[in-house]
Amino acid sequence: MRCIVPEATPMTERTRVVREPHRAVYDRETIYKILDEGFVCHVGFSLDGQPYVIPTLFARVGHALYFHGSAASRMLRNLSGGLPVCLTVTLTDGFVLARSVFNHSMNYRSVVALGQATLVDAPQEKREALRGFTEKILRGRWNEARQPNDQELKATSVLRLPLSEVSAKVRTGPPIDDEPDYALPVWAGVIPVRIAFDSPIRDERCAIALPAYLQNLQR
Amino acid sequence: MRCIVPEATPMTERTRVVREPHRAVYDRETIYKILDEGFVCHVGFSLDGQPYVIPTLFARVGHALYFHGSAASRMLRNLSGGLPVCLTVTLTDGFVLARSVFNHSMNYRSVVALGQATLVDAPQEKREALRGFTEKILRGRWNEARQPNDQELKATSVLRLPLSEVSAKVRTGPPIDDEPDYALPVWAGVIPVRIAFDSPIRDERCAIALPAYLQNLQR
Fold this sequence. Notes:
Two copies of one chain form a homodimer.
Chain A: E1 24-25, H1 28-37, E2 40-47, E3 50-61, E4 64-68, H2 73-76, E5 83-97, E6 105-119, H3 123-135, H4 141-144, H5 150-155, E7 158-162, E8 165-171, E9 189-197, E10 201-202
InterPro entries (chains A, B): Pyridox_Oxase-rel, Split_barrel_FMN-bd
Pfam families (chains A, B): Pyridox_ox_2
Organism (chains A, B): Candidatus Acidiferrum panamense
């Protein structure tokens, strides 16, 4: 099956950004870049009228998101068909300190993807998803570690959400104060926030030297 | 109204951790510590059968979570009563590299709080919530910045979720491999992950020196 995907995602009433629409982004290039930089997503689904939000690892492969099915295990036990979900990925880039508390904000990039998730059956597609989970963070890990055997692949449930209904929201730059507040003697600016990796801690039963792809990990 | 809160949260069928129950935590001290270390939560709610998950700032004040109502603005337009929500806070502590891909994992601490959120009306309660949003990250900021006036307080919608149905899930420590895999020549261990703050960037219209509480920010 060929799939024609437009460069811009179609804005629907459901993905239309209601609050602060000037921060909305609908082009795939920006959206995919945010998705590829994140490694934890938050999966939302409903059960008996109660929403649940569960963190889990994910990866984008082509025009779909793959995530660990265990995140939605509570729901999956009750559903055989497609599962209405929302996958949200949030990157926090900075605290925005305005002169007034009211204008404090965050610099961030977030993606919200809506749709129906389905269980992945094909072993090869499942392998590609698992490869995505590890390689997106630690490029080279897939080839060093022992890859999943058939039994392990079967024991792993992976869900796929096509990226058909998706939008992003981005805030960048300095604080924006009300004009009179600029005269106040209050420090204003941005505190950059990022994910940092510290030195790897070798397992006590491991005698292998740190491989090249784990040295100088940077975000 | 006095509220008697037990040290351990009552486990309900909805907060019972289904997957990997040995990682479940139900004591309030641990749960509150996780909540107080996070600054972004993911709010889940449903509309017309479609779940939505929106990131927003939050703070714990006493035995309740407060979060920006704008996160749920899409929903709030349609609801006047309590809004069934799930608030999830996730802290990522490390990538856990096992010898086999199958046993790769993450070290993390997450809290899931369920219930009905209601709009906060009382200005003083709203002020305390806003104070919580800033002070939990930047202790001292509330007293330096211009505090919200009545008009700004009115323009800010804040939601409250009582912490009555809440659980946490925690993974720590090294990878756990299948016994035969320990002989494989694969590096294994943990890559610690944390939030880092970089040097503050002063707004170009600000001439104030960096205040003490913003120097040497650490996570």
